[in-house]
UniProtKB/TrEMBL annotation:
The lineage of its organism: Bacteria, Pseudomonadati, Pseudomonadota, Betaproteobacteria, Burkholderiales. This is Sulfurtransferase. Gene3D superfamilies: Rhodanese-like domain. Signal peptide: none annotated. Residues 17-105 form the Rhodanese domain. PROSITE patterns: RHODANESE_3. It holds the Pfam family Rhodanese.
Length: 107
């Protein structure tokens, strides 16, 4: 599993020359509704085993949660199930709010 910081991910997302990853937000609905990175796909962590088949094999997947722990578990699960290009957002959406978008609500 790879790791990416919030500023690194923001730079990649802002660069049209870079291939864009799938942003997989694994938080619960209320968390996602509170704040999320634009363009994210939300699948709550407990549904990943049921819905992993909906995820692309060929595209990088960046897993996102509140602080990075749940998303790391999901990233490990995806790797064990054949996904080869999985990255965890270090510090989660909280780090994004602190380091990239201070206007984003925090909880």
């Amino acid at each position: 599993m790879q790791h990416v910081t919030a500023p690194e991910l923001a730079a990649r997302l802002a660069d049209p020359a870079q291939e864009q990853p799938l942003l997989l937000d694994v938080r619960e609905n209320w968390e996602f509704e509170t704040c999320h990175i634009a363009g994210s796909t939300q699948i709550p962590m407990h549904l990943i085993p049921l819905r992993a088949g909906e995820l692309p094999d060929e595209r990088e997947i960046v897993c996102i949660c509140h602080h990075g722990a749940r998303s790391m578990q999901v990233a490990n699960f995806l790797e064990r199930n054949g996904f080869e290009n999985v990255t965890n957002l270090t510090g989660g959406i909280h780090a994004w709010a602190l380091q990239v978008d201070p206007s984003m609500p925090k909880y």
